[in-house]
Amino acid sequence: MVNTRFRLTDRRPFFFLLLFLPLFAQRTWAQVAVDQKIHIVVDLVQLNVAVTDRKGNYVTGLRPEDFEIIEDRIPQKIATFGEGNEQLIGLADTTAPEKQPVAPSASQGSEGAQRISQSDLRSLLAGANVFVLFDTSNYMYRGFVFAQDAIADFLRSLENVDKVAFYSYSRDLSRNTLLTFDRSQLLRGVRSTVAGDNAALYNCLLLTVKDAAKVSGRKVVVVFSNGPDNASVVPPEDVAELAQSTGTAIYMISTNQAHLEPISTAVFERMTAATGGKAYFAKSWNDEERAFASIRDDLAHLYSLSYYPRPNPNRGWRTITVKLVGDRLKKYRIRTRDGYRPQPVGFSTETVPVPLARPITP
After folding, report:
1. If you write DSSP's letter for every residue of 285-298 in order, what string do you get?
2. Are 325 and 38 in contact, with CB atoms under 8 Å apart?
3. pLDDT in 10s for each residue of the chain, 362 residues
4. Which of 137, 206, 210, 256 is the most buried (most CB within 10 A)?
5. From CA 90, how far away is CA 112, in angstroms rounded?
6. Phi and psi angles of residue 95, each rounded to the nearest 5 degrees, phi first
7. Strands 45-52 and 34-40: what pairing?
8. Paired strand residues for 52
């Protein structure tokens, strides 16, 4: 009896080794035989740039040669350029960067436009796509109808943009009207909203930015918020980073109630500045209407610049610096996003075989 137990105990390690050996072999073989590659694809990086003087007046009439773009200390070549609502122009060949960067100049003309992807160029020729996000949380009970009127007037006045979407939020996001040219459809979406639950601003703003990221060309999110966030699980830093990485400018209009909370004020200002937008704090409904008018004015005076990133090994956060060239332009101020993070497209379907080790022959 003792000897039997000893023999079973003695064979047990060998038995378990035989049982799991195929799994070990299969995993090892898969690791050795195939190497999966993760590809990060960065197409055109688009920038909305506001140029103002010290008094806040917009500076117009600048040309491509007046701007310099640097990404991670690497000079970039401007691929497309436009001012306000005018059509973007394609500059010289930027799809095959040379070893020595050449600053864009006025003599480049539009000869290289045919070398830029035609689908990219067509999408960039369109005006801005605007997503309006309306706070319908319980913060809005007192002035809900007045807010609806202000947003309706704002939507009617958006004449030079491409398409507009109208979303609303409280605890959840409601996509009341998807991107459309039809202003009457947008107005019906505004009038269909009702006030209700707590405010999950950052959750819903993240979803809105994700929707905007699917759209080509210029994209802007205009948020109307009547109070701070009290129901989100998403931090505002995640929203700002995604907006920066997708080239989505965020504008926020908030009433005095949110302005009274220092944390919300700081977050709103930091988020909008990081994406190239602005934050407005209104003390009355007339102030809110002026804020909407200021956003329309801003959209009409933004410079649109884009570039194909030169080879950059950095797969993390890439810093963007936009400067004006020439002593006469140094007195002006620039507002735009300050960077982005390349978005991975996941595992490619391409597999790269790795040569297996051959047996050593004597």
Report:
1. HHHHHHHHHHHHHH
2. no
3. 444 444 444 455 544 444 444 444 444 434 444 444 444 455 689 898 999 999 999 999 999 999 999 999 999 999 999 888 676 788 754 443 433 333 333 333 322 222 334 344 344 334 678 999 999 988 776 678 888 888 898 888 887 677 999 999 999 999 999 999 999 999 999 999 988 789 999 999 999 999 999 988 788 999 988 878 889 999 999 999 999 999 899 999 887 565 566 777 888 899 999 999 988 887 765 666 777 788 888 888 899 899 999 999 998 999 999 999 999 998 999 999 999 988 765 433 333 343 444 443 33
4. 137
5. 7
6. -85, -20
7. unpaired
8. 58, 333
Tokens of 96: 């095959």
Q: What is the 3-class SS of 304-354, one letter each residue?
A: EEEECCCCCCCCCCEEEEEEECCHHHCCCEEECCCEECCCEEEEEEEEEEC
The answer to whether 77 and 104 have CB atoms below 8 angstroms apart is: yes
Nearest to 204 by CA among 223, 184, 188, 226: 223
Q: Which of 257, 193, 256 is nearest to 230 (CA)?
A: 257
Q: To which residue do tokens 């107005």 refer?
A: 187
C-beta separation of 303 from 83 below 8 A: yes
Q: Which domains, and CATH codes, for the chain?
A: 129-301 (3.40.50.410)
User: Rounded CA gap, 53 and 342, in Å?
Assistant: 32
Helix 144-157 × helix 285-301 angle, to 10°:
20
- Helix, strand, coil percent values for the chain (each to nearest 5): 40, 25, 35
- Both tokens assigned to 85: 């609502």
Q: Could you give the CA distance from residue 48 to residue 50 in angstroms, rounded to a whole number? A: 7
Give the strand pairing for 219-225 and 129-135: parallel
Nearest one of 242, 181, 176, 254 to 212, comparing CA atoms: 242
